[in-house]
Amino acid sequence: MGWAIAIHGGAGAILQSLTDSHRAAVEQALPELTEVGASMLRNGATALDVVEKATIALEECELFQAGRGSVLTAAGTHELEASIMDGQMGKAGAVCGLRTVRNPIQLARQVLERTDHAFVGGSGAEDLAKAWELDRVPNEWFTTERRLDELRRHLSDPDASRPHPATVGAVACDEKGFVAAATSTGGTTGKLPGRIGDAPLINAGTWADSRVAVSCTGIGERFILAGAARMVAARMELAGDSIEEAAKRVMASMPPESGGMIAVDTAGKMTLPFTSQGMYRGWANSDGDRGIGIGP
Ligand code: ASP
User: Which residue is catalytic, options 34, 46, 73, 167?
Assistant: First the structure.
């Protein structure tokens, strides 16, 4: 069977603030980040391993807003969240309210593997990261000058600031035809401390089953209310939609400019729809189809 991978680095009103140098950096990073997962799939890795490693690479890349370079809460701190789901096992791991865990997606994977739970938050999640000796860093380590600037602008005029992409994710179909999805984020600029978005919520921001894997990005509250990621799978199962129809209809069911999603089915078919100005994205498959995109 053929393999396929898609990644995203957030969707939103990204074009108006995109400088030439930032565009050049993103255009260089996206193919490299896509290749992290593609090379693993070429060598027979499982979809679950691939989405975890691809998301770690995205978390480590400061250009995208998860891990270092995450956005700040209204209190000027970072609260990170992530989730991962394996379609073959039908198991998920999710974490939220993280302050010191360098790679939230790694902790989510460990929750999936090592506990009977699907979702662990706050100090309990931090304690697990400590016990399992995952990399931890001071909260300020996640801060970059760019995010501080965005927070200052947001706090001085919350109405003027448009939603900024603040999420990364990956979906993959491996050569055995199993799919998995992962999503990781700092949330939204100036969010209330304690606010939880769609990214760590299985069903809303992340979903994978025996048909399809989905990772979402955009205005989290809307994706939560739509149950967006799971709804793509439900439309395929119950309405007989193709992956493209299902993803497009779920995006269309939310208000304009809500964001976007990436999805792959067990035949390796991918779709990457968005209703916002743009979505940082990359994709590759075993047929040699590969590419990146920012705007429409
Ligand atoms: N969905 C994320 C959240 O609401 C943000 C984003 O994807 O831009 O936390």
Answer: 167
Beta strands in 50-122 (DSSP E): 80-86, 91-98, 119-121
Q: Which phi and psi (to 5°) does residue 8 adopt? A: -135, 155
CA-CA distance, 64 to 66, in Å (whole number)?
Answer: 6
Other C-beta atoms lying within 10 Å of the C-beta of residue 152: 12
pLDDT digits (tens, 9 = 90+) for 247-281: 999 999 999 999 999 999 999 999 999 999 999 99
Q: Which residue has the tokens 């129809």?
A: 245
Q: Does the annotation mark 167 as catalytic?
A: yes
Residue 176 token pair = 């055995």
Burial (CB count within 10 angstroms: exposed 0-12, middle 13-18, buried 19+), residue 123: exposed
What type of residue is 99? R
For a pocket test of ligand 1, which of 217, 223, 225, 262 has the largest count of ligand atoms closer than 8 A to its C-beta? 217
Locate 221 and state its tokens.
């509250």
State the residue for tokens 């506990």: 115
User: Over the stretch 48-97, which tens digit does the pLDDT of each residue have?
Assistant: 999 999 999 999 998 988 888 889 999 999 999 999 999 999 999 999 99
C-alpha 164/C-alpha 167 separation (Å) is 9
Whether 93 and 106 have beta carbons less than 8 Å apart is answered as no
Nearest to 182 by CA among 80, 114, 256, 106: 106
Q: What distance in Å separates the CA atoms of residue 235 and residue 116, rounded to the nearest whole number?
A: 29
